[in-house]
């Protein structure tokens, strides 16, 4: 009986070892499957991230192009406004120069009139002086 019992125990132990070995293989297989699943998820995640990064880069580049177009448009607008301002400045300068010339001409005319009036007054004064002098000489 000892032999049988010992043999039975050994048989049970052998079954347990076989079961443990099978469980170990199953666990190792599960671990391997988990690692593969993790690796696959990691690859999918990385692929998704790279795809999103590509989309973001495309969007950023599109925004940069739009900004560059806007900058060029603003530069054109500034150039147009600058040209218009320069034309207006020239117009104002021409008008001011015209007014200056007008004022100079008027001043010259007034100076001429004043000189003429002054000569006339001097002439009248001399005539009045000369006509008085003979009267004073004859009356003394």
Question: Care to give the gist of this entry?
Answer:
The protein is mostly helical.
Largest sheet: none
Question: Which structural class should the secondary elements be placed in?
Answer: mainly alpha
**Strand percentage, roughly?**
under 5%
**Radius of gyration, taken over Cα atoms and rounded to an integer in Å:** 58 Å
**Secondary-structure element order, as H and E?**
H
If you had to describe this structure to a student in words, what would you say it looks like?
The chain is mainly α and 140 residues long. It has a domain at 13-92. 98% of the residues lie in helices and 0% in strands. It contains one helix and no strands. The protein has one helix at 2-138. It is rod-shaped. The N and C termini lie far apart (196 Å). The mean pLDDT is 89. Residues 28-54, 103-140 are annotated as: Disordered. Residues 28-42, 103-119 have a biased composition (Basic and acidic residues).
Features:
mainly alpha, rod-shaped, 1 helix, 140 residues
Furnish the topology, listing elements before pairings.
Elements: H1 2-138
């Amino acid at each position: 009986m000892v032999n049988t019992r010992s043999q039975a125990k050994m048989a049970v132990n052998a079954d347990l070892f076989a079961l443990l070995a099978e469980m170990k293989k199953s666990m190792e297989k599960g671990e391997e499957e988990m690692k593969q699943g993790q690796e696959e998820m990691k690859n999918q995640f990385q692929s998704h991230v790279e795809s999103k990064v590509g989309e973001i880069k495309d969007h950023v580049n599109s925004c940069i192009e739009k900004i560059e177009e806007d900058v060029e448009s603003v530069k054109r607008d500034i150039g147009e406004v600058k040209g218009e301002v320069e034309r207006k400045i020239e117009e104002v300068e021409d008008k001011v120069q015209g007014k200056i010339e007008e004022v100079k001409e008027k001043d010259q005319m007034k100076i001429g009139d004043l000189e003429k009036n002054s000569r006339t007054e001097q002439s009248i004064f001399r005539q009045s002086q000369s006509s008085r002098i003979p009267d004073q000489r004859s009356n003394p």
